[in-house]
Design brief:
The chain is mostly helical. It has one domain. α3 packs across α4 and α3 packs across α5. The N and C termini lie far apart (32 Å).
């Protein structure tokens, strides 16, 4: 696991902030995510896993954006106040208004709205 983390960090360091490859939950469309969530509606464990993996994907993506921002611009976003259930609620609201979007779109918009901290 440590080797994978180091390789991931090296990957991000070697590419500019605008160059990235996203995968996983964040690449799902709202409809795909909703269908998966609906299929798990009667299974509390499955629904919990879907919610947890979505929250973790969003938090991980925000962390990666912060990492790149701090390296490239010496600034990062304050993500300390973001709670898991808030993310799910906000994601659902966003997706109702942007039905052709993917979860990454929501995450990028959320990140852009967070307060910036200057690390100079």
């Amino acid at each position: 696991m440590k080797i994978l983390t180091i390789i991931s960090i090296l990957f991000f360091i070697n590419f500019p902030a605008h160059s990235y490859i996203a995968s996983g939950t964040g690449m799902k469309s709202w409809k795909e995510w909703l269908n998966t969530s609906d299929e798990a509606a009667n299974n509390v464990t499955a629904k919990g896993i879907i919610r947890a993996s979505t929250i973790q994907w969003i938090r991980g993506y925000l962390s990666a954006l912060n990492f790149l921002s701090e390296i490239n611009r010496k600034k990062y976003k304050d993500v300390s106040g973001i709670k898991g259930e808030y993310l799910i609620f906000s994601l659902q609201e966003y997706c109702l208004e942007n039905q052709d979007s993917i979860i990454e779109d929501f995450t990028l918009k959320l990140w852009s709205q967070l307060p910036t901290i200057d690390n100079n």
